[in-house]
TrEMBL record, chain A:
This is Peptide/nickel transport system ATP-binding protein. It comes from the Bacteria. Keywords: ATP-binding, Nucleotide-binding, Transport. It comes from Roseovarius tolerans. One of its GO terms (cellular component) is plasma membrane. GO terms for molecular function: ATP binding; ATP hydrolysis activity.
UniProtKB/TrEMBL annotation, chain B:
One of its GO terms (biological process) is transmembrane transport. Its main location: membrane. PANTHER family: OLIGOPEPTIDE TRANSPORT SYSTEM PERMEASE PROTEIN APPC (PTHR43386), PEPTIDE ABC TRANSPORTER PERMEASE PROTEIN (PTHR43386:SF25). GO terms for cellular component: plasma membrane. Signal peptide: none annotated. InterPro entries: BP-dependent_transpt_permease, MetI-like, MetI-like_sf, OppC_N. It comes from Roseovarius tolerans. This is Peptide/nickel transport system permease protein. It is found in: Cell membrane. Keywords: Cell membrane, Membrane, Transmembrane, Transmembrane helix, Transport.
Amino acid sequence: MSNASASAVLELRGVTKTYHVKQGLFGTARPLTAVNDVSLSLPRGEVLGLVGESGCGKSTLAKILLGLEAPTAGQVLVDGEEIGAQDRMTLARRIQPIFQDPYSSLNPRKSIFDIVSLPLRVHGIGDRAHWEKEVRSILDIVGLPARVMNTFPSQMSGGQRQRVAIARALIMKPEIVICDEPTSALDVSVQSQILNLLGDLRSEFGLTYLFISHDLAVVEHLATRVAVMYLGRIVEEAGVAGLFDEAAHPYTQALLKSVLTPEPGLGVPDTQLGMAYPNPIDPPSGCHFHPRCPMATELCKTTAPRPVETPGGRVECHLHDPQSPMHNPKAA
Amino acid sequence: MTQLDTQDPILAEITGPTPGQMLRKRVFGHQGLMIGLVVLVILTLVAIFAPLLAPHDPYAQSLMTRMEPPVFLGGDWEHPLGTDHLGRDYLSRLIYGARVSLMIGVIAALISGVIGTAMGVAAGYFGGRVDMVVTFLINVRLAMPVVLVALAVVAILGGSLQVVIVVLGLLLWDRFAVVMRASTLQVRGREYVAAARAIGASTPRVILSEIMPNIANNLIVVVTLEMAHAILLEAALSFLGLGVQPPTPSWGLMVSEGKNMMLFEPWMVLIPGAVLFVLVLAINLMGDGLRDVTAPENRS
């Protein structure tokens, strides 16, 4: 990859994950490519927002980064070292997740102390007095009083639970935090608290975030770069300002139109995407986005676009590829 | 820590009862569960302290006082529940019989619980080939009629308390495997399991400390049901003469020995039948109650 920078703390090279899905009792297994040739580079201290509709492969990508799933092809590099070559313990100290649903991410049978101190206990760091000190300090950092240590998740609200999940992720001081839609299960008023907390923690600990979301407003608030995912592919990647000001890919443009504005009377915006999300087992030919693209041409139905460098990043669309046959039909 | 502000919205809500307190409240508020529990505790104490409680030696025969009726049918207080066809005290035999029934119930449920839980959890957690093998084994086991297999094995190896316990333990694991597999599948997908794995926790640790505590309630319910199942099967095998061998006092054997006299002395069948019924009812009440108090829909 030409854009591999030395300071990239997390780098993905052509990562692909294919599942085999059996349809019916006697059906033959068909491949489902959840993540398709994804290359990303995340410099230290940045926040990369990963956006896309449900089912586009965001969460699968998160599982691969956490070492919970192995990629079918491609490489994931953390600090230049491949993920598969590292043992799980080392990886766990570098990358930690914050999950979407705080009601499912905390074991209901365990006290908050047990949940937050689990990383220390698994890694055999210190003794009980040390764990208590660490848990106390990390709870303080995420804005919870020390007395919650003896309570259980069922006694807490969603926002409090998410703070516990953040405390668990940060107690080992990881370099990278994978936030998989950390606010989508929360009330709007609590969402902003959690987002601000994540922002503060990033500057305090020098964290690098991969922030997965389907909510562009949330991404705009926190991210420094944005990657847009569609059907397992990164269709556009750009700096946050560039992407929000002049989105190149028609899909990004449609997503931006779908952001709810606080203005009353406008109603739910029309994304003009029309058709439903395609079945990932049976992806459309050519450019995967062409059935829903308002600017699709005959070429889009047959030929997949190649990634093109743009001033702010990268885009996969014939419209922006000067070499595409679309712009010089004679060469086609 | 700095002084905590009680007006802080973050602190305001952490005041509810702990899960343990809520469980205790539900347990003591559940009538069926309490009745079953009390009966079971009494029967267990009776079984444990049988030598102190039994008025006579359960093996002592007395041909002079054969088939004396119980007190309520005109007998005397020397033998409150009468004597059997060999003149042995019926109450003492009932009390010692509780030992056999409870021991078979507990140990057989324990053996099958270990086998079935190991298989079910492995199938649910690992999926794929392991799941296929376990599901196949469950289906094979379900295709075998328990009583016939037990009869065949006991007929070959000879009937004794140990053989009956082991045979039942090796046969009754199917429900454990089915229930534990389904529960594990359900819990495995929770994000706290993924979080524990992302932390670097080993597979045994994830299974023992993240999954098991969350499926233990289902396990307890199945344990009680299988205990009742094993007790009834022992009684059935003993009745058929292939279970516990005489002169060991067993409720099933007492029914069997009394059946020849059933038309003339019906109490000889009815008394052991009644205590068997009460024991199984108590266990089932407790199992149902446990399912009620631990069911997720009961949680606030």
